[in-house]
Amino acid sequence: MKKDIHPSDYRPVVFEDLGNGFRVLSKSTIKAEEMTKWEDGKEYPLVKVHISSSTHPFFTGQEKLLDMEGRVDRFKARAEAGAKAKAAKQLKPKNKKTSTKKEKQEQTV
C-alpha cells in the first residue's frame, strides 16, 4: 500500500439536514466553520447539507415512479399497428408497371 496518500485530518463530523434537522455523526475530512454539541456532550465540526437520506426521495419512498405499464402498452400498440400495415401492404396486389414517357411516345408513333 502506498504511504502518505490518505488525509491526516480524518475526524468525527456532524452532518445536519437543513430540510428537517436530521443529524448524523460520521467521520470526514471536510472543512467546517461551525461547531455543535452532540448527544455525548462533546463538540464536533458541523456541516449543513440540503439533502440527506432522511429527505432524499429514493430513501423516503416518495420518488416519482414512471408509468412503465403505459409505456409498454403504447409500444406494443405501435408494433402491432406496424405489423398490420406490413401485412396489408404484402396482401395488396402490386400495381402494373406504369409506362414511362419514352414508352408512351413509342406507342403513339
SSE blueprint:
Blueprint: E1 11-17, E2 23-28, E3 34-37, E4 43-49, H1 57-60, H2 68-91, H3 101-108
Parallel strand pairs: 1-4
Antiparallel strand pairs: 1-2, 3-4
List keywords for this structure.
109 residues; alpha+beta; single chain
Mean pLDDT: 81
Broad shape:
elongated
Contiguous uncertain segments of 5+ residues: none
Biggest β-sheet: count, sense, barrel?
Answer: 4 strands, mixed
Q: Looking across the biggest beta sheet, what order are the strands in?
A: 2-1-4-3
Radius of gyration: 35 Å
Distance between the termini: 95 Å
**Helix share bin:** 25-40%
Q: Total helix count?
A: 3
Number of strands: 4
Order of helices and strands: EEEEHHH
Query: Beta-strand level of the residues, as a percent range?
Result: 15-25%
Classify the secondary structure makeup into a structural class: alpha+beta
Written overview of the protein:
By secondary structure, the protein is of the alpha+beta class. It has a domain at 11-60. 33% of the residues lie in helices and 22% in strands. The protein has three helices and four strands, in the order ββββααα. It has helices at 57-60, 68-91, 101-108, and strands at residues 11-17, 23-28, 34-37, 43-49. It has a four-stranded mixed sheet, with no helix packed on it. It is elongated, with a radius of gyration of 35 Å. The termini are far apart.
